[in-house]
Amino acid sequence: MKRLLLIFAFLSMPAFGQTTLYRSVQPFVAGGLELNGSGYTPAGAAGVSGIFLDSKYLLLDPEVGYYTGGKNDDNANTSATGHTRYMKGDALIKIGEWYVGPGCSWSKLYTPAYDKSSVHPRFAFGRQWPNDGYRLTVEYVQRGTDKANGIHGFDVVGYKFFGRYAFLRMDLGGYWGHNTTPPSGPTAPGVVLTSEFQTVVGFRF
After folding, report:
1. Cα 134 to chain centroid, rounded
2. Contact in structure between 140 and 156 (CB atoms under 8 Å)
3. Burial of 21 (0-12, 13-18, 19+ CB in 10 A)
4. Global confidence as pTM
5. Residue 107 CA to chain centroid, in angstroms?
6. Where does 13-157 have alpha helices with state H?
């Protein structure tokens, strides 16, 4: 047990001679607010946990999350209650303060009437400003396994780090696809537009 604690302490130490946002390897937890676009409950609570890994040439940030809120315009679901679980992460190559690389996400929506899940490959690029404590990432989210709606779009994530431990993250996503519900108006089935905005306050160990 003592050896494990020593290894964990060593990994959590700042990388000597480097200016990094994440201080090598750090687990984190965060919580905040989830705002949803058309077709979903307007607001809910969000919880996130994961690991930051920042080395000289590689940036990793796998995480798992949970947020409340369900569908509110679905004929099969009349209560608008529900929640979503997800996992996502990127493996980014660093070139100076810039980075680029692939990622992937999985999410599953649970409602009283049904649940559905999908996997979405992603591609990201961004930049970090270590001296000021900022990081910005822009990602293209592909359709992946979502054959029913073909949802795809973009995801913009911004971080502000306060010292070694605290941070604020804002995540804005915009997506489009096609409807799967029966025609019931001038725009159905047509194109579906939706969005989400998550803001969380986190702590790095």
Report:
1. 17
2. no
3. buried
4. 0.80
5. 10
6. none
**Domain regions of the chain by residue span:** 22-204
The residue type found at 194 is T
At 94-112, the pLDDT tens digits run 999 999 999 999 999 888 7
Which tokens go with 142? Answer: 């592909």
Q: Which of 101, 105, 75, 71 is nearest to 88 (CA)?
A: 105
* Block residue for tokens 């999908």: 118
Q: Would you mind telling me the total number of residues written for the chain in this entry?
A: 205
Residues 35-49: pLDDT tens digits?
A: 987 667 888 999 999
Q: Confirm if 159 and 21 have CB atoms less than 8 A apart.
A: yes
Going from the C-alpha of 37 to that of each of 34, 43, 63, 172, 190, the distances in angstroms are 10, 9, 23, 11, 17
User: Which DSSP symbol is given to 82?
Assistant: -
DSSP for 27-53? Answer: EEEEEEEEEE-TTB-SEEEEEEEEEEE
Say which CATH class 22-204 falls into.
mainly beta
SS3 8: helix
Mean of pLDDT values over 175-187: 63
